[in-house]
Amino acid sequence: MNIEDGKIVTTSADPIFACMDQWYAHMRGDLDGGLDTLLHPDVVFFSPVVFTPQEGRDITKVYLNAAGGTLGGDDKVETASFKGAATSGSGEFGYIKRILQGHHAMLEFETTVEGKYVNGVDIITCDDDGLITEFKVMMRPLQAVNAVHAQMGAMLERMAAARDGAKS
Q1: DSSP secondary structure string, 131-163?
Q2: In angstroms, what CA-CA distances link 36 with 59, 111, 150?
Q3: Closest listed residue to residue 148, CA positions, set 137, 159, 158, 136
Q4: C-alpha to C-alpha distance for 156 and 162, rounded to whole angstroms
Q5: CATH says 2-159 is which class?
Q6: Do the beta carbons of residue 130 and residue 13 sit within 8 Å?
Q7: What CA–CA distance (Å, rounded) separates 99 from 156?
Q8: Which of 32, 79, 97, 152 is buried most deeply by CB count within 10 Å?
Q9: Which of residues 25 and 91 earns the better pLDDT score?
Q10: What is the rounded CA–CA span in Å between residue 84 and residue 92?
């Protein structure tokens, strides 16, 4: 980010641009090393339904992976897009707006969960190296938050059972 003639000018050199390129690659399943290469070891995750911030790469990966399995939409589409697919009625997860500046991104998304329209934002902060240091998710309306909460709980239970089954 630069300041020219008293105005803030965003450039593609801002760290968030490279970070978002990596995030989109992860969303497509094309990021070598996955979230381990994208998340700072001390990343903090803020959930729309969990009161306390979740600290660290491992727990953040759990929440982001569970969200990926939950927010794919009623059609269970596996990748994100900028098509605004939820608005078109497909139920697919899609980023519909984005704001990128400096070390920060705000990505607005739409999807459907259990037939409920979900609208929210991912607010992402990265460091100078392009690693995500903070990931905050906010959602609306309340019916959608409740549906996502229930689905996330079920997804987290399935993931825990799969991990426990793999250990035995």
Answers
A1: -EEEEEEEEE-HHHHHHHHHHHHHHHHHHHHHH
A2: 12, 26, 27
A3: 137
A4: 10
A5: alpha beta
A6: no
A7: 30
A8: 152
A9: 25
A10: 8
Task: Give the CA count within 13 Å in the CB-facing half-sphere of 80.
Answer: 25
For strands 39-46 and 132-140, give the pairing: parallel
Q: What residue type is 86 in one-letter code?
A: A
How far does the chain reach from its first CA to its final CA, in angstroms? 51
Alpha helices in 7-83 (DSSP H): 15-28, 57-70
CB 85 within 8 A of CB 99: no
With a cut of 70, say whether residue 89 has pLDDT above it.
Answer: no
- Do 117 and 39 touch, CB atoms closer than 8 A? no
Structure tokens at 126: 């990265």
∠ CA 166-132-37, nearest 5°, is: 50
Domain ranges of the chain: 2-159
CA atoms within 13 A on the CB side of 11: 6
Q: Is the pLDDT of residue 141 over 50?
A: yes
d(CA 9, CA 64): 31
Closest CA to 163 of 56, 65, 36: 65
Q: What is the mean pLDDT of residues 133-150?
A: 93
